[in-house]
Specification:
alpha+beta, 59% helix, disordered C terminus, 5-stranded antiparallel beta sheet, 5-stranded mixed beta sheet
């Protein structure tokens, strides 16, 4: 089966060239044999017919009436001996026989054969049926021992002797001639017939090969293009599957983070404003406010404590709301987004942030603008809470639709492997960026921390 595998691995053109070449050679051989045989038969028959006509024109007048089917009389035999033994006819003819229908030789230049009877073979029977028979071969008949002793091919001709008034064959003239030049004629006929068959077969095969090679080349080009397309689609399918898995994980993480955010907000409300409001509520039930005997100064002081607790609760509620509600950034540029979040951070923390912005005013999706805002906001908050807000810096670059934002500080740094998976800050940033097809990176050490968000141009253009 290895040969079949190797054969199938070949191109269609190569398979056609091999198989077509073998078939063409076989067809050329068969057609050549047939054509050569037909041409040889035609040449031999025409040559024999010409010789038979010549011999018949010379010999027939010397023959008596053959209806008696007896041996030739002495006068006719002598006339034939003189005619066949001299002149051009004598030089061409090797032997001569006159046959009767029953296979008896009525006359022969070999006198020992006269009167003998031999089996009627197919050639003799065909001649008595009225057909001229011509063969070019080494004599093999029983009565042709002398011709066979020459050891070379001779022209053997059987010419029927016909009655003029009925057309019936009454005898057959058999003679062998040297057929000088016939072998050369046959050789030329064979050569030209083989050359013609080989040339036509080669032209036909080459013409088909050109068409097949062109078609095979077109098929190979289309096959390569199709293979490249299939590989591309396979790669896209694998990428889509990967994105689908990332999307599923991001959705799961987003749901978990939303719950964590809600718990965080609930904890902030419970630990902050709720405590102040509960404190104020308790003070409202104090006897200092309802006892008429209490001094107005004491009552006023109690009310001041209540007002202070409620004011503190309102301030914390506003701070929480301010962190949840984004400013209008759908139509804002990257420069405006960075300035807004940096200014809000500086006002809240009282720290300074070094800002560097380089943009070509790209068209960004609203989701990406929100991601930029939250990324800088969360990164600055982490830099302030964990790095002490030392030398905070924000760098934003946008070229050709690609976005790169870096937030850094010169704090003590931390070990990224120690970050809990339930942490809202870094995990939330990474999940948000991954869900939009971007890349998130952290570089931290003793010299400080840098968080990086990157979006390639094709990922962010809308």
């Amino acid at each position: 089966m290895n040969w079949l595998i190797r054969w199938n691995a070949r191109s269609l053109a190569s398979q056609f060239f091999i198989m077509g070449g073998l078939v063409s050679l076989g067809a050329m051989f068969v057609i050549g044999l047939i054509v050569t045989h037909l041409i040889e038969d035609a040449v031999i028959h025409n040559s024999g017919a010409a010789t038979a006509l010549y011999v018949d024109s010379v010999v027939a007048p010397l023959l008596p009436d053959m209806q008696t089917e007896s041996l030739l009389d002495e006068g006719s035999a002598q006339a034939l001996d003189e005619t066949l033994g001299q002149g051009a006819l004598g030089r061409r003819l090797v032997s001569f026989k006159l046959w009767r229908r029953d296979g008896t030789i009525l006359y022969s230049n070999d006198k020992e054969l006269v009167g003998k009877t031999f089996p009627v073979d197919g050639k003799l029977a065909q001649a008595f049926a009225g057909s001229l028979v011509a063969r070019y071969e080494v004599a093999s008949d029983p009565e042709s021992a002398e011709e066979r002793s020459l050891g070379r091919a001779l022209m053997e001709i059987y010419n029927p002797v016909l009655q003029p008034w009925s057309g019936e064959a009454v005898a057959v003239l058999e003679f062998y001639e040297t057929a000088e030049g016939l072998e050369d004629s046959l050789a030329r006929a064979r050569l030209w017939s083989w050359l013609a068959v080989a040339g036509l077969t080669a032209i036909f095969f080459l013409a088909l090969s050109i068409l097949v090679f062109r078609g095979s080349h077109t098929i190979e080009v289309q096959r390569e293009a199709l293979k490249a397309r299939v590989d591309e689609l396979s790669a896209l399918l694998a990428e889509n599957r990967g994105l689908q898995r990332r999307l599923q994980l991001s959705s799961q993480r987003a749901a978990a983070l939303n719950e964590t955010y809600l718990r965080s907000i609930g904890a902030d409300l419970h630990d902050g404003p709720a405590q102040h409001i509960a404190y104020a509520s308790l003070r409202l039930d104090s006897n200092l406010l309802v006892d008429a005997t209490i001094q107005p100064e004491t009552r006023e002081k109690e009310l001041a404590w209540i007002r202070s607790s409620l004011a503190e609760a309102m301030k914390e509620i506003r701070d929480i709301c301010k962190g949840l509600v984004l400013p209008q950034i759908e139509r804002a540029s990257i420069t405006e987004i960075v300035k807004r979040v940096v200014e809000a951070h500086q006002e809240k923390t009282g720290t300074t942030v070094d800002t560097t912005i380089d943009e070509d005013d790209p068209e960004l999706a609203p989701a990406l603008k929100i991601c930029i805002y939250r990324f800088i906001q969360e990164a600055l908050n982490n830099a302030y809470r964990h790095g002490g807000g030392v030398e905070q810096a924000v760098s934003a670059t946008s070229r050709g639709g690609g976005v790169r934002v870096e937030v850094s500080d010169r704090g003590e740094g931390f070990d990224p492997t120690q970050v809990r998976s339930a942490s809202l800050g870094l995990v939330g940033l990474k999940e948000r960026i991954d869900s939009l097809g971007g890349e998130f990176d952290i570089r931290t050490g003793e010299g400080g921390t840098t968080v990086i968000m990157t979006f390639a141009p094709m990922e962010v253009e809308e």
